[in-house]
Specification:
elongated; single chain; about 400 residues; Rhopdopsin 7-helix transmembrane proteins; Arc Repressor Mutant, subunit A; mainly alpha
Amino acid sequence: MQPLTLDWLTILVLLGAAQGLFLTAALAAQRRNRTANRLLAVAVFAFSLQMLSVVYHAVGFEQVFPHFFGVAYPLPLLFGPLVYLYAVTASDRTRGLRRWDVLHFVPFAAVVVWGLPVYTMSGAEKIAFYHQLQAGLRPSSFGVIDTLKYVSGIAYSVATIVFLRRHRRRIEDSYSSLEHVNLRWLLRLNFAGAAIWALATAFHVRDLLLPSSRGVSEDSVVALGIAILVYGIGYMALRQPEILSMAPATPDRAPPPQTPPDPAPRYERSGLGDREAAALQARLVAVMDQEHPYRNSDLTLADLAERLQTSPHKLSEVLNTQLRQTFYDFVNGYRVREVQSRLADDTTRNLTLLSLALDAGFASKSTFNAAFKKATGRTPSEYRSGVGS
């Protein structure tokens, strides 16, 4: 056996695999929202095996450990379904796996069954088969399966992105602060994942059209992309620990995300008449003006409905059909107006903008800045300068 040498790309991929295995153990050990965390644990474990497979081939271990050959080949068909189901179950902590969810894994199972003759080969037979592939004697079925991988990866990336964008619209009708429930980090990682699949597809098409143009290893570049995803998950787990714990936004009280605001016909069967809607709207405005519940950064639609002695559904109807606002925009509008009022008060000149925002109920500086700019057309700093001039 020749001395083991690793280039920088292989080292980064190997470190990504090690990080992935560590994250797998951490996710599997979580007790909250076990379904979501275990799905993500399996996904990260599959990422790690894929990266280890690239390192395995890069260092020429086929001759030494032939039985690992081919283990990772069907794994890309797991990536998309696992991440998609993780997004679905993480967005609704009451949602477990359902009977029909198994259909997502049919392509993976089919490829495993198809590969059984290879998996049951002896070590010597696997080495001979590997040399056959290296010589270009590749069965046509490989091309079909490779294409299926890319179609699956891109389709699930798009489906997950669409789901997460809809999820944000849904939670805006139930939560006044989205930091712990918006899954924005997962949306960003899915955009990165979609880019990796697009890159892999481009490499695949290039190799089909120009077989002699192969330069940098396609598998190494894609594995590096996967490693970056794993690094990203690890970074977010440290920066935003609720990703692993999945703690409810309001302990034991946060409701599952409700449906997004829709036109009035959606509420036709709620039984809320015009007079009752007007009365509820008047009570809502009075409570917001006099009791200032918006100063609670964890205020939810259910909390406010309980205070008004009504149902979340009726309150949502008043917000969506009478005030034409989501719960999120309605509450943050009050928070912005309170900050504006305090900025006009000379006694607040020594207070920072962040301090004023937190007092008004904002949970973070980024949310405050975005809400303030949306409501006023100016950043908080610009607004303060204008008030003081």
